[in-house]
Specification:
It is a single chain. This protein has helices at about 30-40, 75-85, 100, 105-110, 125-135, 205-210, 220-230, 250-260, 275-280, 280-290, 305-310, 315-330, 345-360, 380-385, 410-430, 435-445, 445-470, 475-485; strands at about 10-15, 45-50, 60-70, 90-95, 115-120, 145-150, 155, 190, 195, 215, 235-240, 265-270, 290-300, 330-340, 365-370. The protein is α/β, with parallel strands linked by helices. The protein folds into three domains: about 5-155, 3-Layer(aba) Sandwich (Rossmann fold); about 165-175 and about 180-400, Alpha-Beta Barrel (TIM Barrel); about 410-495, no CATH class. It has a seven-stranded mixed beta sheet, with helices on both faces. The protein is globular, with a radius of gyration of 23 Å. Bound molecules: cobalamin and iron/sulfur cluster. Cobalamin (B12) binds near residues 28, 72, 121 and 204.
Amino acid sequence: MIISKKNKKDVLLIYPGQFAESDPNFPIQLLCLAKPLIEQGISVDILDLRINDYRYFDFREYRVIGITVMTVFYNRAKKITEFIRKTSRDSIIVYGGHHPSLEPITTLKENEAVNYLICGEGEASFLKLCQKIIYKSDIDFLDIEGLVFKLGNDVFVNKPKEILNLDDTSFLPYGLLALTDYPKAKERFEFYSSRGCPHSCSFCSNSIRNIRWRAKTPAVMIEEIKDIIFSFSPKIISIFDANFFVSKSRIAEFCKLLIKEKIKVKFYAMGRCDYFAGYDADFMKLLTEAGFIEIAMGAESGSLPMLKYLNKNITVEMIISSVKNCVAYKIKPILSFVIDVPNETKKDIYQTLDLYDAIVKLGAAVNGIFLFIPFPGSKITSEIIEKFQLSKDTYARSLYDIKEVGYHSRSYELFCQTIAFCAHLFLVRSIRKNWSFSRKLARDKHWMKVVVNDSIDWLFYYLAKARWRLRFFYLGYDLRIYWWLRNRDFSVKDN
Ligand code: B12
Ligand code: SF4
């Protein structure tokens, strides 16, 4: 098929996640980018590669293709970009998101096929760039904030500009997504209310990029939430802010408005252990009354030296107190941990596992023990790069596809991977056991697969329990067998 420039659609936005990933979350950043474009009459499609296989998509139809790039997806994004360039020579490809914002010059230089890159918040800059490309507006490239572009052998980086009034980013165009692709949304609908964070945890993109904290006003949040309830009637609204609780007074006002307006939906949000260790009874009661039922917090480690190394500014005692405080007010605390951190020893890891057991006994849930990813630009990453050769593959490490990180021995990494795998199985089991058969069917697509997956999960869950009890994380063959069995139909796993 020959597509003339005249017939091309305007913009395609891509989320380059792993194809066939279970239960995807909304690509909120793409909805944020799409909103001002649509308002200015530019048509937008979203292609979520967790749901669609890019190899069967016709990219030639689009003038501008924007790709959001997290560090973990960098290698995938590169591969997909090369594919797009081969099939669609004259589409303009633009990168944005955390990774390009952390490493703009290298990212643009490493990717011949990428025309432009946008650092920082993309709404205004991407709109200006699209208007320049599509309508040939006379704005100068130098006047597009955050734009990174090549001119001959030079790369220019314009200073990014952050959005001052986040209320302007409310009411996202959810209609761009087929809600059937996101089965979780009926139960849990994703929403965001603030950006940035004032803390400086050394591993976090927010602190590396020094993203200033800004938030929507409670009154606007309430209107947006009413709209979501009216259109989608979810049971829970997941507030996906990096740190929702930065301003206690804003949260108190929001809760009071929810109660006043008799809004009955439940809430999940992310906060910090030190906050929840210190909140008084009145505030906790207010949260419960307003509908908060789950609070996610990064506990990160059970070892104080590691907490200090990660600049978390919390102690093990605070982690325990935060759990107790939430449980006392019937709010489920959901904690996460990170291992395979530079300078960590097995003693630190065992302390993390002991803390894991202790908080679970107190009533907390754990949503994962993650493998540390050294993001570019952080102090930790600079330190390890000085001592070790870090490959870009390090960024792409994931539970089922471990890449050598270079700062720990291979056997130590496998040991960590097996621990993360056990925690993953505990999580999968806790989620799936509450699912109805039809919910599982929506995820697995065929009843036979539901039965097979349930059996695999059951078997490996008990193996993981035995490993955990014995603290035996060597010889991780079960992990490989599990991924092979569970993902054997992911024929395009590394597509
Ligand atoms: C919600 C959230 C999630 C959700 C949903 C993710 C999603 N839809 O992308 C879930 C829980 C699934 C998730 C998972 C993970 N996440 Co997460 N997550 C977040 C969180 C808290 C908020 C993201 C968000 O919605 N922000 C709001 C939007 C509007 O902001 P934004 O993403 O920055 O997008 C703006 C700009 O970056 C830019 N932009 C973005 N994309 C593009 C593309 C173009 C073309 C342009 C022009 C501009 C542009 O414009 C946007 C609007 O202003 C952030 C923390 C944070 N502060 O961002 C971490 C964060 C994005 N996650 C992170 C990580 C590491 C992960 C995981 C890998 C964790 C893990 N170990 O498993 C997974 C992998 C994701 C997956 N498998 O898909 C890192 C990414 C760091 C990095 N350097 O890449 C962050 C920054 C947290 C951190 N620790 O530093 N995450
Ligand atoms: S509190 Fe959370 S969002 Fe803030 S810097 Fe630390 S890890 Fe990042």
